[in-house]
Amino acid sequence: MGYVESLLSKGEDMIVRSRQHWVSLLASILINGFIVVVVLVLYIVLDKLLKPVGVVATAIGVVALIGVLFGLVRFGWDLLQWWAEEYIVSTRRVIQTEGIINKRTADSSLEKVNDVVLVQSFFGRILGYGNLEIVTGSDIGVNLLTRLRDPITFKTAMLDQKAKLHDFDDSRPADEPADRDVPKLIAELDELRKKGLISDAEFSEKKAKLLAQL
């Protein structure tokens, strides 16, 4: 089981799993690529100028190797950080996880999502990325996903799952048979409460509605 899968509670399924678009790595590619190119050019020039001096040429070669490795290692670290940052839509919440060694996770309950704002630039529409702002009325949780890959699919999945959460409310007609497993639903609600995804008041309210259906 992977790290992301371990974050899911009992009965919670992953719907969409995404990360930032590769354009997020563009700055790192340009900067570290520039470092490598400059080091190599300087090495070639100095090697020709100082070729008769063997010891100095060897020292320059070592410095050049260190410079090239520095640029490559920096880019490799940025690549690992990009890969480790993921955005997930589950059947209950939106999850953001990041970090290679020290992991950090933030999530927002779909029930608390009030609105979703998608902003795509001209190049964002062409390449398939955009900024997705999740409005929850709270500063805690997932609020802004920058340069998200395929943001339309992510937004649609999130709103679809939010709509399905209405299974927990009292929208069922009075003449509809109570064929749902009420104790199981209450147990799932209790797990959401323990994880802090819903408040004690929300848990009590929904529990009362479910018990009323028995």
Strand line-up of the largest beta sheet: 1-2-3-4
- The fraction of residues assigned to DSSP E strands is 15-25%
Structural class: alpha+beta
Q: Please count the beta strands (DSSP E, at least 2 residues each).
A: 7
Mean pLDDT, rounded to whole units? Answer: 82
* SSE sequence, one letter per element: HEHHEEEEHEEHHH
Choose one word for the global shape.
elongated
**Low-confidence parts, pLDDT < 50 over ≥5 residues?**
170-179
Total helices: the number is: 7
Give a structural overview:
- It is a single chain.
- This protein has 214 residues and is of the alpha+beta class.
- Among the domains are: 24-82; 169-214.
- Helices cover 49% and strands 19% of the residues.
- It is built from seven helices and seven strands.
- It has helices spanning 3-7, 26-49, 54-84, 122-127, 151-164, 182-194, 200-211; strands at 14-18, 86-90, 93-98, 104-109, 115-119, 129-135, 144-149.
- It has a four-stranded antiparallel β-sheet. Strands 5-6-7 form a three-stranded antiparallel β-sheet.
- Strand 3 (93-98) and strand 4 (104-109) form a beta hairpin.
- Helix 6 packs antiparallel against helix 7.
- Residues 170-179 have low confidence and may be disordered.
Topology at a glance:
Elements: H1 3-7, E1 14-18, H2 26-49, H3 54-84, E2 86-90, E3 93-98, E4 104-109, E5 115-119, H4 122-127, E6 129-135, E7 144-149, H5 151-164, H6 182-194, H7 200-211
Antiparallel strand pairs: 1-2, 2-3, 3-4, 5-6, 6-7
